Amino acid sequence: MKDIKLHQKKFNEIKELLISKLGEKIVIDEENGTTFLQIEDSEYWLSVDHSEFTVGFGLNHKHFSEEYDNLKKGIEEAFKLLTHEIRVTKYIKGKTLYKAVTEIKISDSIIENLGVTGILFYPFWKKNQTETSYFEAIIKKEDIESEIEKIVTIP
Prior knowledge:
- The chain has 3 helices and 9 strands.
- It has helices at 6-22, 71-83, 141-152, and strands spanning 26-31, 34-39, 44-48, 53-57, 60-64, 85-93, 96-107, 110-118, 128-135.
- Strand 3 and strand 4 form a beta hairpin.
- Helix 2 runs antiparallel to helix 3 (141-152).
């Protein structure tokens, strides 16, 4: 049996926690050596492969691993996306989504940017539209605080 890397172990710990709290809403899929985790009726997702752990919400995502020396930050981000309100602003020209901004509302005065995704080629001459969506926290932080602390701790 192959050795399991730390980022894979942490992904599995998060997966088990989410299954214990959300049950059948957790969807697991495997393809080409990558395991994907999604929560039904949500834009939240995680993935893991042999080299990295990816945390995403909708189009935006970030990559983490031991090699990048940012695995703890990735685990913390995975929990922030679960336990805080998320705002997604989509920028559209005509029928083309050309940019999406995903933000985590930490408090009334603190908003963290998860990321900006954009495409280079779009009909720039068409009328600009924006659509903003708000997503409530998936799990209350106080319901999983002790588990978060255990999973975030990296030996």
